[in-house]
Task: structure prediction
Amino acid sequence: LDRAKAEDLRLFTPGPVDLSSQARNGLAMPVEHHRTESFESLLLRMLEDLKQAFRTSDEVVALTSSGTGAMESVVASLFSPGDRVLVPVSGKFSRRWAGICSAFGVEVAEMSLEPGTGPSAEAIRERLTEDSRIEAVLLTHSETSTGSLTDLECLGPLIRDVGLEQGREILCCADCISSLCVDELRKDDWFVDCAVSASQKGLLAPPGLAFVCLNQRALGRIEASGRSGYYFDLGRYYRDPSRSPFTPSVSIARAVHDSLEHLLALGLDNVVEANRSGAAGLRMIVEHAGLRPVAREQSNAVIAFWVDDVDPERVAAILLADHGIVVAQGQEELQGRILRASSIGKGKADIVGFGRALEATMAGLGRRFTLDDIIQDLETTLEGSRLWESRQ
Ligand SMILES: *Cc1c(COP(=O)(O)O)cnc(C)c1O
Result:
């Protein structure tokens, strides 16, 4: 892949996504030494900005890893072998919580859900009431394998209330890796004790940094759990968040810092609204093409859709070869049955362009639809995503 060709590709994948121009420029800066005042102050500003993005007053720490490293650090640091946690599983990423727990000897009470659905308040309350050994619920805010959004606003307070009613502490942990700056998220108001995220999705930066945000309840568990692991022991990172215990990815930190400063200057609510508008437009295109979305409650991070009798690999191959558009396949049990497209950070012109490309691709496969039939409604729906056009 040469540079000119790479410049023409558009990532409609749900992470990594195309970089903001701020992230790209940040990456071009020289590498700084991590034990300098200037880098420590950059890291501190990045962490302060992340607090705003999570809407929290709790400290955030950064790990040099992809998002899964942050998930692993939470399991390794907050729980001990034999502890029991509830994990609603509705796709690849929620299943990952369960897999990490098993690897650390943490018992999983699994709740199996249909792909595209999220756990209901009634079901969570029932499981917590009948199983008094459960110490935490591990949720996936935006399940990126299906595009389904979990109702954290309802479940966070519910988990806390059940704990209060029963006189025990039940922690609410949420994977917010694809939802940060993408879907509405209010960590403190929603009583989320522990949230994790990563650099390569809503922050429009490259992969390489992961973030953890713990409140006092969650921090209290670090010592109590007896700790395990070394690199991913959160106790080390929380000792002094601005002084990373190991060499952090300084270049990615710069990119995240510069990108996030820009997002916050645009306004977090405006950014989420732009992503909502883009996702609504994308969903409209897909539905008009006669393809059914997988998710019942739609996250703004990705639209996953059933391809029925069309071969998803052919659709993806044509989008790439003829239009320079990269989309994602289904994973695990959904492989070969769905495609996934993300409009994170994409403006109106990009998304209409995606619609034209899908129209041509589907026509080539004998499944005609006419984008012009919906173009006016589509343009109205995409008004909010114009925010991204001020990005360059
Ligand atoms: C992207 C993503 C992850 C993390 O994947 P990494 O490849 O480790 O960065 C985890 N959970 C969700 C919901 C995601 O979207």
Observations:
- The mean pLDDT is 96.
- The radius of gyration is 21 Å.
